[in-house]
Amino acid sequence: MAKKKKIKKTNEERILDQHGVDYQETDFDWLKLGESALAQAEAEGIPAKSILKTIVLQANGSGRDYLVICLPLEYEIDLKIVAAELGKKQVHLADNKKLVQITGYVHGANTPIGISFKQGFPIYFDERIKDFPEVSVSAGKVGRSVRVNQKELVKLVKGKYLKVQK
């Protein structure tokens, strides 16, 4: 009889364990599957708008003023609204080529859990996710996610809700 291969936990899953936050491991490969991944999630009973992407922004052109926005995959950010909401002169996307240096994660693996604990960057969530009791975020590895209680996640990463689009 073959032994079942145990999946090694990510650092983010260990952080959730240490803080007593329940989660469900999921595989969700938006980068490879795109829109069909959302359809697959919907078929499994997971609302597509509850699956979040993690966007790293740089404010005021400063190499030290980074922040993170988490919002549903299919939504966009209005950078002018975000800047106004945060009282910043301007915000723009962080340099994708330097993401590993900035956050410690490759594109597609950025997660509010790890970034909050490793980098201490402020974490903001699109206010439109308040209606979802559970959300999915990256588990720190491309294609791997965790499904967690939305309010517990926001509390864990000391997050705040923010208007990110009209």
UniProtKB/TrEMBL annotation:
Protein name: Cys-tRNA(Pro)/Cys-tRNA(Cys) deacylase
Domain YbaK/aminoacyl-tRNA synthetase-associated positions: 39-156
Pfam family, one: tRNA_edit
EC number assigned by the record: 4.2.-.-
Gene3D superfamilies, per database record: YbaK/aminoacyl-tRNA synthetase-associated domain
GO MF entries: aminoacyl-tRNA deacylase activity; lyase activity
Enzyme class: lyase
Keyword Phosphoprotein: no
Gene Ontology BP terms: translation
Alphabetized UniProt keyword annotations: Lyase, Protein biosynthesis
Family label: Belongs to the prolyl-tRNA editing family. YbaK/EbsC subfamily.
Tagged with keyword Lyase: yes
UniProt cross-references to InterPro entries, sorted A to Z: Prolyl-tRNA_editing_YbaK/EbsC, YbaK/aa-tRNA-synt-asso_dom_sf, YbaK/aa-tRNA-synth-assoc-dom
